[in-house]
Fold each of these.
Amino acid sequence: MLMTDAILITIIAERLLKKQLTELIVEKGAKGYTITDASGEGSRGIRASEFEGRNIKLEAIVNQEVANKILTAVSETYFENYAVITYTENVKVVRGDKYL
Amino acid sequence: MLMTDAILITIIAERLLKKQLTELIVEKGAKGYTITDASGEGSRGIRASEFEGRNIKLEAIVNQEVANKILTAVSETYFENYAVITYTENVKVVRGDKYL
Amino acid sequence: MLMTDAILITIIAERLLKKQLTELIVEKGAKGYTITDASGEGSRGIRASEFEGRNIKLEAIVNQEVANKILTAVSETYFENYAVITYTENVKVVRGDKYL
Amino acid sequence: MDALISNFASPIVLAFVLGIVSRLVKSNLELPKPLYQSISIYLLLAIGLKGGVELSKTSFDVVVWPVGATLLLGVVTPITAFLVLRYMGRFDMDNAAGIAAHYGSVSVVTYIAAMAYAESVGLQAEGFMPTLVALLEIPGIVVALMIPLLLSTGGGSVKKAMHEVFTGSSIMLLMGGLLIGFVSGPERFASVEPFFVTMFNGALVLFLLELGIVTASRLRDLKKAGLFLVGFGIIVPILHGILAIWLGLLAGLSVAGAGVFAAMVSSGSYIAAPAAVRIALPKASPTLYLTASLGITFPFNITLGIPLYFVIANWMGG
Amino acid sequence: MDALISNFASPIVLAFVLGIVSRLVKSNLELPKPLYQSISIYLLLAIGLKGGVELSKTSFDVVVWPVGATLLLGVVTPITAFLVLRYMGRFDMDNAAGIAAHYGSVSVVTYIAAMAYAESVGLQAEGFMPTLVALLEIPGIVVALMIPLLLSTGGGSVKKAMHEVFTGSSIMLLMGGLLIGFVSGPERFASVEPFFVTMFNGALVLFLLELGIVTASRLRDLKKAGLFLVGFGIIVPILHGILAIWLGLLAGLSVAGAGVFAAMVSSGSYIAAPAAVRIALPKASPTLYLTASLGITFPFNITLGIPLYFVIANWMGG
Amino acid sequence: MDALISNFASPIVLAFVLGIVSRLVKSNLELPKPLYQSISIYLLLAIGLKGGVELSKTSFDVVVWPVGATLLLGVVTPITAFLVLRYMGRFDMDNAAGIAAHYGSVSVVTYIAAMAYAESVGLQAEGFMPTLVALLEIPGIVVALMIPLLLSTGGGSVKKAMHEVFTGSSIMLLMGGLLIGFVSGPERFASVEPFFVTMFNGALVLFLLELGIVTASRLRDLKKAGLFLVGFGIIVPILHGILAIWLGLLAGLSVAGAGVFAAMVSSGSYIAAPAAVRIALPKASPTLYLTASLGITFPFNITLGIPLYFVIANWMGG
Ligand SMILES: Nc1ncnc2c1ncn2[C@@H]1O[C@H](COP(=O)(O)O)[C@@H](O)[C@H]1O
Ligand SMILES: Nc1ncnc2c1ncn2[C@@H]1O[C@H](COP(=O)(O)O)[C@@H](O)[C@H]1O
Ligand SMILES: Nc1ncnc2c1ncn2[C@@H]1O[C@H](COP(=O)(O)O)[C@@H](O)[C@H]1O
Ligand code: NA
Ligand code: NA
Ligand code: NA
């Protein structure tokens, strides 16, 4: 099985930012993304989207360059005022050309 | 803490394939799996399970050999006609004998 | 982008243990956590929380030391009698000071 | 004309329009998926129950002919749809059979809208209509999926698809409801009637709101689907509808019954069929079959089609 | 016999059967989890509210004896169950206590089915029965969990389990509903009555559909549970039921009230008890206690048990 | 006094209290999120529909003045709130504007509670009140978000926030419902009335249970919010309420109508406004604006505020 190295970037954020964040990562070059509902607690606590009750967890498989662009954009735009955390992992994908 | 190296294989697919895919990975040797609901967008767009609205994200901790078998089977059977993506990561598990 | 190495620890467990497990990981030093609903099958099968139908998947970004403490505590307290699995991965986080 | 306005101004149709509009203005309005699924379950079970209770009051002689007509049309309509698509539309085998499966089956919501329409113009269709809906759901899919098999193409698993069709939740709920209603009978049904009958139309408003939202996201696919499919999605249903009226009246249905029957037969499934086709004919494009049945025929039927079928039924049988 | 058929033919029991059948034919039918939880919440709150409103119309003298009988049985039944399991069935301490906790508590759905049955045969149990349900839910669990503690085994956290029991959502809703109903009184309750009373039986049909599906997945565990447990799950409830009828009639309950009371007392909890037992006695096997209470006693009660208790109540007190 | 007790003893208010209590005793009781969202959708659509049907029976002359009064107050109240917060409370620009946006908009549940209260004391507010609710939802938010823009601070995206407000699901459902109700008219509405009208108060009980739970988790933030905000959250609504009564009576509203109008105007939004403010003014603290509108003003209004407004309305206009 031919596998390609790729980056899995994960963004956990208040649900209110769903649309903005998906637009952002697509703009920065992600070919797709996957969203799951999540809840959680962190150091900053309360958010306005409490009524919708949950965070979202946004995952995208991208190459290193796109990952960097997304990381920079997310931290510049959202880290100060919103409940957002981001991390990356190394993964191996089948048919890497599709995502990278 | 004694940790064992293992592979975490993730399959994101249209919900319609849930039963088929879980059967497939168990048949190829996975001792268990975890499913979460997900939604997302990719390069191929529309699917028939839209009414059920979501993808599934199937995760299994397996050894390298089982991972390879699953990867091969999934890509042969589903990649052409269905919305499916697959990737693997290296993880460390406690009590590895249980899964591997 | 300045990234810090960290550990992503994942615990999949019967939902009944949600409160106990989140308290445990915070007590052991996690600064936050994220929870998603999950379902699944493993080697031990049935659980009492079947009515609530699902497992939880608890993820926390921590440093190696906290990860070890959590792993030890979880395996000592829950592995014998409950449906629980745990694994760790290496990730890179932005603003590592926040979690570690 | 009056009938048309009356249909357009019903809360059910208007809720559908609201759903479409809210998607067009990019509102974030959406029904939680579990609510949508819950209402589907409720509607299917309720239809089954009502049908079963009615059936328990009806004599065999009265139903036997309409049942025959339903099964016949379940076999005929997917074939006509297939032939039109394959030989006039030049669709490939998989797509032609996949779309045909949808038109062989039935859209439960179209049926409900037709019943509501009948009521709103002061008519009353036969009580056993839900029995016909349940019977119409399956054969069309089976027949359509057989075609590529007989002509030996395919590739997907027809066996799995058949299991999917027969044990799919919509059949379970419709047939299960029918049996429960039939065995319970009117008296024992009374205690659950407020829930399953009195609330029915209101729940339908919520359902059509969501269906409007889903349909609107189909509309942008109309271009991909092409002009032929748009024509197909309007003209073939009308022809199937006329055929249904003729056969329905022959089988002894009332004018209102024939109108509802036409709406059922003309409609395209978008719940049971897509799941089955996706498994049996993976090469068939969901964009084509969902756009046709949900994006074209469904909106056509619930706005113009239903009043039209009633006019024709009245004219042929009144 | 007639009573039996009438019970079997009720939409509620038939929905339960549909749930079982649909699982057996491997249908993918299932209620969305949030719907299932929503209906649970609704049913518990509705029972509480109705009970509270009735209680506000009842004098203290009338309730005091039934309340006493309920508390007494809440203490006695887990002990008899424990003794039978430990000394006749040779179960280990944890499993015996774990199962006993379930039989000391109450299955709310069994209670509801008994009320519905009473109505269907033209009888009317006392209005304050929900009060008794709420009171019966807790003590049996507490008593059973105390046993291994007194005999000093265990290992889980009884304190956490107690908090789980007392602040569990079922107690909150039942007791909260009771208080709200009691304080509101019939007049202020009127505006919410259509929602909480008129819709009740219909909502129950959906609930039992899901319960049938869950029960069916228990049935394959019957073999693991063993013959003794099957016998236990039928005979002990009957004995508890007879005891309840006798005490209930002594306490002044009507024949219908005694029948419903027997159904309650004989039933095994499968919501509050499993959660508490899982935490307090982690070594007790969920397969055993859930199979017994949900896989054996529950289906027995709602099909044969309830009519039987009514026959006995009629015979002892009629 | 009687009115007060009557209000406290209503199932709706008691359910709210049950929600608070269950959180305080750390119960795990919670409504599934999809249920909560479903009830929100239902309530908003139902209010719109009822309002639309009533509007279709009302002449233009009767509504025009109340509509004017509503729009005027939608502009005035966020400004008074802003001035009090900025210059008396010394809040920074973002927080003052953020909180003001909430008080310029409306809490739909407060409106509903006021309608229910009116009914419970035998009064009947004008049928077109839901029209006013829908109109009051937006302008206050727009005006408040304009303030920092005019005084040129901000940083968030006001444009995105405006789109959020105008296409938000609450406006879609309220306005959509109004239009559907208006176009359908009373006759076509009849078939969905049991669902949207008869069930309304019962569904509200469930909603307030959850709102109680959410509010309770706000209460621990009261300390962070500070004494000034607590005073603000009680006194400013009373002043806005009195202003609303005066203008409402001038505009021709009945005493009951003026009481309900006061409850609306005095209330703080906690669904539409938070989402908009979070996007337009990301530096404003959700803790402050949610604690004020949901933790202080909402409980004040549904317990003491509403009866008070009715007393004042009666006194000023009776
Ligand atoms: N250390 C952590 N590990 C995993 N998830 C976290 C962690 N810290 C925060 N989160 C998630 O990020 C969200 C926002 O965190 P915060 O901005 O710190 O309130 C939380 O609700 C959690 O879902
Ligand atoms: N680059 C990606 N990163 C993460 N998830 C993806 C990516 N591409 C596709 N997906 C997921 O895979 C599903 C199917 O993708 P596709 O087959 O490209 O339509 C999508 O709905 C997404 O959930
Ligand atoms: N090999 C595996 N890979 C992924 N998830 C697993 C695996 N084994 C068990 N699980 C998850 O852990 C839960 C408990 O497993 P068990 O204790 O083996 O019944 C299951 O319900 C699954 O969600
Ligand atoms: Na058809
Ligand atoms: Na019992
Ligand atoms: Na206001």
Amino acid sequence: MSVQEICRVAENTQLGDGLFLMVLHAPKTTELAQCGQFVHIACGEGHLLRRPISICAWKAPELRIVFQVKGEGTKWLSERRTGDELDVLGPLGHGFDVGALGSAPVFIGGGIGVPPMLGCVREAVKQGAKPAAILGFRNKGAVILEGDFRDECETFVTTDDGSYARHGFVTDVLKEQIASASGVAACGPKPMLKAIAAIAKQAGVPCQVSMEERMGCGIGACLVCACALKAKDGETRYGHVCKDGPVFNAEEVEW
Amino acid sequence: MSVQEICRVAENTQLGDGLFLMVLHAPKTTELAQCGQFVHIACGEGHLLRRPISICAWKAPELRIVFQVKGEGTKWLSERRTGDELDVLGPLGHGFDVGALGSAPVFIGGGIGVPPMLGCVREAVKQGAKPAAILGFRNKGAVILEGDFRDECETFVTTDDGSYARHGFVTDVLKEQIASASGVAACGPKPMLKAIAAIAKQAGVPCQVSMEERMGCGIGACLVCACALKAKDGETRYGHVCKDGPVFNAEEVEW
Amino acid sequence: MADLRVNFCGVELKNPITTASGTFGFGHEYGEFFDLSQLGGIGVKGLTPTERLGNPAPRIAETPQGILNCVGLQNPGIDRFIKEQIPFLRQYDTKIIANVSGNTVEEYEGMVEKISDADVDLIEMNISCPNVKCGGMAFGTQPKMVEEVVSAAKAKAKKPLIVKLSPNVTDIAEIARAAESAGADALSLINTLLGMRIDIEKRRPILSNVMGGLSGPAVFPVAVRMVYQVRKAVSVPILGMGGIRTGRDIVEMLLAGADAVAMGTVMFNDPTAPVKALRELEEWMDAHGVKSVSELSGAVEVG
Amino acid sequence: MADLRVNFCGVELKNPITTASGTFGFGHEYGEFFDLSQLGGIGVKGLTPTERLGNPAPRIAETPQGILNCVGLQNPGIDRFIKEQIPFLRQYDTKIIANVSGNTVEEYEGMVEKISDADVDLIEMNISCPNVKCGGMAFGTQPKMVEEVVSAAKAKAKKPLIVKLSPNVTDIAEIARAAESAGADALSLINTLLGMRIDIEKRRPILSNVMGGLSGPAVFPVAVRMVYQVRKAVSVPILGMGGIRTGRDIVEMLLAGADAVAMGTVMFNDPTAPVKALRELEEWMDAHGVKSVSELSGAVEVG
Ligand SMILES: Cc1cc2nc3c(=O)[nH]c(=O)nc-3n(C[C@H](O)[C@H](O)[C@H](O)COP(=O)(O)OP(=O)(O)OC[C@H]3O[C@@H](n4cnc5c(N)ncnc54)[C@H](O)[C@@H]3O)c2cc1C
Ligand SMILES: Cc1cc2nc3c(=O)[nH]c(=O)nc-3n(C[C@H](O)[C@H](O)[C@H](O)COP(=O)(O)OP(=O)(O)OC[C@H]3O[C@@H](n4cnc5c(N)ncnc54)[C@H](O)[C@@H]3O)c2cc1C
Ligand SMILES: Cc1cc2nc3c(=O)[nH]c(=O)nc-3n(C[C@H](O)[C@H](O)[C@H](O)COP(=O)(O)O)c2cc1C
Ligand SMILES: Cc1cc2nc3c(=O)[nH]c(=O)nc-3n(C[C@H](O)[C@H](O)[C@H](O)COP(=O)(O)O)c2cc1C
Ligand code: FES
Ligand code: FES
């Protein structure tokens, strides 16, 4: 179930270069939220389309999201101040099925794909699993939420340029950890997800990935957010990121 | 000369039913302002076109305007708060030539046409004339700026429904005062201006009127704000409210 | 209290507000946000003879107060619609407008014949979708083709047949007359305007299909103009659409000549837009002493 | 530093930014807000053989991210333009694009002949204005008429002749080909889309002329699409316009196929938009290592 809720901005803090942490007062949305779902946010009169942003974490009535300024919509979001109101649709989509990832799940986030994994880690802990997290960033300035993850579980951090923590990619770490992993879940750039899916497949553990696509309605009515999936007959069919996803089983995805 | 100025809102106060008084910090605009001119205000991302609003009064660096909420643009304006910034083009157009109205000019405002007459009255006083003001309103709730006018000159107030001051129209008062008037200037609904022009003509005194038309550029480049004027040959020609006006000699106007 | 009912070629709509085909799926999703029985009618996703997968992503691009889409008529096919979706829709007290597309005259005939026997109220024949390379576009832009395909379809229609016109033409009135003379019971317009956006960083079109259909508030003035022109050209009822956001927009579309309206893209911004607009329309009519919707239809005064 | 110069059918523009005819008067007014020498060229108000008064007010209506206008070609006539305005414009280091309109083939011939002998750099022939009842519209919407009027005008032209196309057609490529084959040295597009708004309180059209031309950001995706289609259809240079707001929009229009661009309606929102866009364009090119504007023109990759 989803609702349209006018949420007060409780906090909007710059985390780093073009990165913002926003806390919304969202009593109805947080009551329904599951990890890996997203909210669809109206970004002012200037924009007809809402912007999809993953739920990072929540503690009713507060919803936490983290976003990166990319274009005009996210720029508008970054300019909201405490007390402003936002028109939020959510929670939307099919999130991570943390229970299906076993007792030692590994959660992997790349860049702006990191935030939704925090909700996953917390859910896993709540379900009694012993998760690990692998977080990859471009460089030191892009590192976000590290402390929040470390509060929950063993956390590995990499940077592409070695300017912080381990020099390399999340896949380097995953390859080392995969032997002890009962399942993998990831959010980030598509090439990263594809590489992770391959590693998980080889290791024979379940893998869930969160996909991105441009959206219209955000609820499954307009069919614009097509994600190519493998149909049983080997043909391509289209799932919809906003309703069937954003989280899909990696095996389903046509990479 | 005109400038584009980003002005801080110093005050935005509701005066009455849908009526607002706004004070803008506008050092450059106020340096150039003349009575009867207007400013062209950008009304947010939602509106491509600026909205023309008359200059009511000014005392550098503060510019005072009074506006009525009519549609989406003025509604947006009414929602601005102290400290917000507005993109203002101005001062624009050809204002009142108070000097040409003689030593006993009468200034007449109808409804939302009242505000620009305040600047006129002050200018007349400054020039050593002895102005009078006639202000007409729909009803008691619509009365604005009465005190400001009374501070400057003899002021007559009428309401259409008699709910305040004199029951009747500004023309009723004008007919009584015209004998002692050296000139007339007016702003308000077109039928009112037309009636005033006729009275002034009969009395043989100069009459200036401020016209309204929908605008594009506001500076004379797009030619959309046409106002039908009498050409010398008796044919109609179009003047442009934003540049040739908003103030025209009443004799010129094709009513 | 204003009477909102509309008789649309013999079918009574409880109010003039329907949903635009392709923006509303088969109703399930928006049904979470408001009671579908509040709508005058539901225009369902465009149907084809067999399942269509549609185009790859991206299928949408934002434009100033508009969107481009190139969904490419993804749909489960008419048979599954009849079997799986009609029973769901019939739970609600609203009319069903089935929207059909085809690549050939024969396909249109077959679709109209089949859907006529199903439990729908109105048939909307989309001869204007700009996304399907063969067929769609061509039919809606040539008066001769319009006549041919509409006559053929009309011969098979046992329900009122609405012909949906493309705005991508030089003379919309000519196309409207062709559709009317071929037997259309009503016309709907506008479908999307052909447009394009380019991702300047990638130097590639944003849409997978290069071009797509423009809809949303940006097209409203074009839609009002075309409805006005078509109203003057034909006498069959008109379902007006294109960029409607509010109750005031509905009044404007009715005045231009529409008998009923459809809302689409605006719901992506606000899922409850149709019910808000319904309330606004009702309030506006009451405040203006307008007793029935038909008083407004085509009532613009010119000259 | 990027090289912004553009060779537009033999005329060197210092940068690709010009102003759209009819939105910029003869330059005086915007000259108060920025130095006109910063522009690649100035498109002046459309000229006719003799003075035209234009339509009564209202001549403008706002639409979502757009405007409708029905100025109706108010202008002082070509002779007064030549005598009174060219000397003013020549004070600035920029190119003059004279825009001419006529009601008959003969009028176009006469206008082009006369303006050819005046001190202007380029002639833009408006065969697309939707506001003039007789003439304008018809020429631009029929390939045969386009050929006829363009051939006749070209025979008299001693300066490069740009033919300005109407977007209100089924197939813009066909019209473009007709203009090119008739001798057009360049094409400009898009002129305004025909639209209408109604004042629902008065139940009357807002515009005195009932319908008017839609311009502004709302039409940008239609303009990009048409420039792209025309680029594929002809080889003469293209002056792209329609809804451009920013330097990024200019890059998009260039990628679609324009060689230079014009900005119009956006200035009503921000009078300095062209100079802001110029700066943005330059910065964008520098940041992306694009050395010259011509590297961008038509460089969209498809497929
Ligand atoms: C399910 C999902 C979850 C997401 N979660 C987050 C998050 O937690 N934090 C975050 O910073 N970003 C997230 N994104 C990406 C975010 O939606 C885009 O960065 C944002 O929409 C860009 O909007 P803009 O106006 O700034 O950019 P513009 O490029 O100006 O946007 C233009 C249009 O393209 C769309 N668009 C552009 N990039 C993307 C993209 N990557 N995905 C989908 N639509 C796009 C916009 O929504 C808009 O409709 C998520 C995307 C999806 C699909
Ligand atoms: C020279 C001049 C001075 C003015 N001074 C004042 C003033 O001091 N106080 C005040 O309250 N109003 C004044 N007006 C009227 C004011 O400009 C309009 O009320 C306002 O533009 C309405 O905008 P909106 O978005 O609220 O209404 P909408 O009806 O939504 O506007 C739609 C479009 O129509 C235009 N429009 C609508 N009504 C008018 C109108 N009466 N005149 C010109 N354009 C209009 C708008 O500018 C906009 O482009 C003045 C108008 C002019 C021409
Ligand atoms: C995502 C999307 C899909 C559409 N699919 C169809 C369709 O399948 N059949 C059809 O006739 N029209 C289709 N349309 C056009 C709409 O029904 C409508 O004519 C158009 O969007 C204008 O209305 P609007 O501006 O209110 O959206 C589609 C529009 C959109 C935005
Ligand atoms: C008020 C106005 C007047 C116009 N007058 C003319 C004209 O005289 N001749 C012409 O060829 N185009 C005219 N146009 C069309 C513009 O030159 C341009 O093609 C169109 O507005 C699209 O560009 P824009 O969206 O940047 O304004 C006019 C446009 C506007 C808004
Ligand atoms: S965004 Fe509409 S179906 Fe996914
Ligand atoms: S508004 Fe452009 S000339 Fe007056």
